[in-house]
Design a protein that fits this description.
Blueprint lengths: L3 E5 L10 E4 L10 H4 L3 E2 L7 H7 L6 H12 L3 H10 L5 E5 L8 H11 L1
Parallel strand pairs: 1-4, 2-3, 2-4
Helix pairs in contact: 2-3, 3-5
């Protein structure tokens, strides 16, 4: 099994990133698509607009956000399994735009995929 990583879209891509999947519903501000080096933009597995707006990247809401997001991800089990399948042959990096590197959707998504 290869490595599942998370990385901010504003960090320079590296060769060991493997397949880079943007997991935001909105395109990150201030970065050109060609500079992001994204292989897939997977809006469907990103948090819903309602959940994203409710959370507002407030650290005190992260625990509740995580639970709600995990609930949303149950309806995307097939897509999560596809990502897990990719890991058999190549690294996968979940790319996100949030400033907070420990309380964001990519952290939750990685945790869910790791458990599959």
């Amino acid at each position: 099994m290869k490595e599942l990583k998370i990385k901010r879209v504003y960090e320079a891509p590296s060769l060991d990133d493997g397949v880079r999947i943007l997991v935001d519903r909105l395109w990150p501000r201030g970065i050109k698509k060609e500079d992001a080096h994204i292989d897939f933009w997977d809006k469907e597995i990103a948090p819903s607009t309602e959940l994203r707006e409710w959370f507002g990247h407030k650290p005190e809401l992260f625990e509740e956000f995580s639970k709600k997001y995990m609930q949303e991800l149950k309806s995307h089990e097939d897509r999560l399994k596809e990502i897990k399948e990719m890991l058999k042959t190549k690294n996968v990096t979940l790319v996100y735009g949030a400033k907070d590197t420990k309380d964001n959707q990519a952290v939750v998504l990685k945790k869910v995929i790791d458990k599959i």
